[in-house]
Design goal:
heterodimer, A: alpha+beta, two-stranded antiparallel ribbon, 2 helices, 34% strand, globular, B: alpha+beta, five-stranded antiparallel β-sheet, 3 helices, elongated
């Protein structure tokens, strides 16, 4: 299975990349996606996660072809 | 309903006029129009701010703005709505966001406009980075709730 992982704003700078591609053979949670993609890199508190542009919890399961995004609290308006 | 994300500076009153010209099906039904216009300040958290860049997540931004409107439509009787939000490089006095809601009665228009603005502030993936004097930059860390400010 293969997914894309996107990072935005300060988290993009923290990770040092705007996206990763990840291949895996068994189901992963969003939290496991972060760990697979970023290893021991500290996860900033309050980081938000989305699958296919919907907010999700960190224990949500990711499916083949999904787009996962990680980003800091939003500050628009 | 219309949602627009733009890198270009815009005149909210002109955009409003243009959009209202498309609302022929609501002529006679509209009794109230409520507007919110958010403008960039030149100060924040004790610092002079000389400019700002706004990043967003294309696609999710529009999806979440649509959800803000959908939820408002479930709570109030709304005839139409318009949201325009700037992204990219902006300067003080630029308009950041326009929200307009049209309804038969003022209560629905007032309340839905405020609800959409607060929902935008807390759920729509925009991020501001401020340019300060001496060429330094900082990310805005979080938005406050407009309902809790004195």
């Amino acid at each position: 299975m293969s997914i894309k992982v996107y990072y935005f704003a300060s988290l993009k700078e923290h990770v040092g990349s705007s996206e990763h591609e990840l291949d895996f053979t068994q189901s992963l949670t969003v939290n496991e996606v972060w760990l697979r993609a970023n290893g021991t890199l500290v996860l900033p508190k309050n980081t938000l996660a989305a699958i296919n542009m919907d907010y999700v919890d960190w224990d949500s399961l990711v499916s083949d072809g999904d787009v996962v995004a990680f980003f800091p609290p939003v500050t628009g308006g | 309903m219309a949602i627009k994300i733009t890198e270009l500076a815009f005149d909210p009153y002109h955009e409003l006029k243009l959009y209202q010209n498309t609302q022929l099906e609501h002529l006679g039904a509209i009794g109230a129009t409520s507007l919110f216009i958010g403008t960039m300040r030149d100060f924040n958290q004790g610092s002079q701010v000389t400019g700002m860049s706004i990043e967003h997540y294309p696609g999710m931004t529009e999806k979440q703005l649509g959800l803000c409107i959908e939820k408002a439509q479930g709570l109030w009787s709304i005839l139409d709505s318009l949201i325009i939000h700037r992204v990219g490089t902006i300067t003080p006095n630029d308009v950041i966001v326009l929200i307009a809601v049209w309804s038969a009665h003022r209560g629905d228009a007032f309340d839905a406009t405020r609800y959409i603005m607060e929902a935008l502030k807390s759920t729509v993936p925009f991020w501001k980075k401020e340019c300060l004097e001496a060429d330094t930059e900082r990310w805005v860390i979080s938005n406050t709730s407009g309902y809790q400010q004195g």
